[in-house]
Amino acid sequence: DAGVIQSPRHEVTEMGQEVTLRCKPISGHNSLFWYRQTMMRGLELLIYFNNNVPIDDSGMPEDRFSAKMPNASFSTLKIQPSEPRDSAVYFCASSPFIFSDNEQFFGPGTRLTVL
Amino acid sequence: AQSVTQPDIHITVSEGASLELRCNYSYGATPYLFWYVQSPGQGLQLLLKYFSGDTLVQGIKGFEAEFKRSQSSFNLRKPSVHWSDAAEYFCAVGARGSTLGRLYFGRGTQLTVWP
Q1: For residues B72 and B111, what is the distance between their CA atoms, to the nearest angstrom?
Q2: CB-based contact A45 B102, cutoff 8 Å
Q3: Which of B36, B46, B101 sits opposite A55 (nearest CB)?
């Protein structure tokens, strides 16, 4: 398996623009997680899905952020409008089941820079 | 609520020296415990995990960790560090029996290895 795939790997945009990050989880995995990593706040869980259904979105910073999982093999994280403080590395991870005893497999991340 | 503390933000060791990275957790029962490693520009990779049984667990790349219930700790060790071990290390805790599926990560410890 190719592992978790994220695109793009790097994104540079201007403040106010819409940004869409994409994730393809490992085939057969039921759970998908979106994280954000910054120097100031470390690794933060934004939202996670089980069987394509959002379970907990309490980590989503504000209404400018939205995430969808239309099917088992694809998820998006959208920021509209983007702001400079959204600059971070965004990781997607997947897991075979939702229970916490299962390893999460991380993608390589998308480095977002908002000018 | 679960939480993880990694007291050391940055550790520097010489190549060939022994290593111990500290991790303390807060949880009302015995949790699931994980150590992940993040190399520059990469996603997180699982080093090892503890679920139950033997409190000393072996992982990849020659790492091991010991679960100490009385100290609420799960410290990571390696007897002889290699230059390629330079990376950031994250401790994480998951709730045993929880269907919520999330992991709680520490802030990470950055390891620098001197030649």
Answers
A1: 23
A2: yes
A3: B101
pLDDT digits (tens, 9 = 90+) for A80-110: 999 999 999 999 999 987 666 678 999 999 9
pLDDT at A1: 64
**Mean residue pLDDT across chain A:** 93
A48 vs B34, B95, B101: nearest CB: B101
Here the tokens at position B62 are 């020659």
Smallest CA–CA distance, residue A44 to chain B, in Å, is: 8
Decide: residue B18, CB within 10 A, 0-12 exposed, 13-18 middle, 19+ buried.
exposed
Q: What pLDDT digit, counting tens, does each position of B23-77 carry?
A: 999 987 778 899 999 998 889 999 999 988 889 999 999 999 999 999 999 999 9
Amino acid occupying residue B40: P
How far apart (Å, rounded) are the C-alpha atoms in residues A22 and B63? 33
